[in-house]
Write a structure and sequence with these properties.
50% helix
């Protein structure tokens, strides 16, 4: 169950590790992955404790849907705060434009 503070801590550890290993790293990739992780669509197999909060690309909103063996976000508010900030909205729009131009 990662909330915004936990994601920041994880990102910090990844940056330190990347520097130690002399590897390029972007914190954006961690957040982008959290906002693009697709749920397991077998919702009828979920128990309430495995129902995950995911960003829905169709509605551009976070919601409870699908199963997850790990929760990416602790609350809907955390998901909205992270996935719907202006920088990520702009990146998604650019990504959609690139997909349609190919």
């Amino acid at each position: 169950m990662a909330n915004y503070s936990q994601l920041r801590i994880i990102t910090g550890f990844c940056v330190i590790l990347a520097v130690m290993l002399d590897q390029p790293f972007t914190a954006e990739a961690v957040v982008r992955d959290a906002c693009q992780t697709a749920p397991n669509k077998n919702v009828w197999l979920c128990s309430p404790t495995t129902l995950g909060i995911f960003f829905d690309p169709e509605t551009q909103r976070c919601r409870y849907m699908g199963c997850s063996n790990r929760k990416l976000f602790l609350t809907l508010e955390d998901c909205e705060k992270i996935c719907n900030n202006p920088r990520h909205i702009k990146r998604r729009n650019q990504s959609k434009a690139n997909e349609t131009s190919h």
